[in-house]
Amino acid sequence: MEWNFKIALDDKLLTLLRQQQIYWRQWGLIKWVKCGDAPTKFFQADAIVRYKKKLITSLSNSASQEFTKHHSKEALLWEAHKDRLGASNFSNMQLNLHELLPQPFDLSSLKQHITKEEIIAVILFETTSS
Model-level pTM? Predict the structure, then answer.
């Protein structure tokens, strides 16, 4: 009797956990639809922090000259890249690309607009399949 009770409790727990997972997934979807990429303070602060982490304010060359303008930093990086990798002279191509690459697909059907019914069907399918 205790064994059957344990199995019933396990089944009930799994059912509740699935329902909780579905609830939070739907809640996140609703929040994303409502807020999305809204310019809230949180998203703005996060974007500024990511930008500042990736920003290179200045670069120096081997002669200790400092470059701060974008075009001069770009030229310095390009020259350093060329020096490290070297330059190669391109001769003619030995491969026939028309034989190797497949023919392009017909993508004209992608120009059609997506209907609200299709979006709702996809959302319902994702929530029921999870």
Answer: 0.33
Phi/psi at 39 (nearest 5 deg)?
-75, 60
**What does residue 68 show for φ and ψ, rounded to 5 degrees?**
-120, -20
Q: How far is CA 78 from CA 69, 81, 98, in A?
A: 14, 5, 33
Neighbours of 55 (CB within 10 A): 7
Please report the beta strands in 1-130, taking only residues with DSSP state E, as ranges in sequence order: 59-60, 66-67
Render pLDDT for 21-50 as a digit per residue (tens, 0 to 9). Answer: 999 888 878 877 777 666 677 778 878 888
What gap in Å lies between CA 113 and CA 109, rounded to an integer?
Answer: 9
Tell me if 71 sits within 8 A of 65, measured CB to CB: no
Type of residue numbered 5: F
Q: Which residues contact 43 (CB under 8 A, 6 or more apart)?
A: 37
75 within 8 A of 61, measured Cβ to Cβ? no
The arithmetic mean of pLDDT across residues 66-87, rounded, is 88
Give the tokens for residue 86: 């070297």
**Centroid of chain to Cα 127:** 22
Cα distance between residue 34 and residue 2, in whole Å:
47
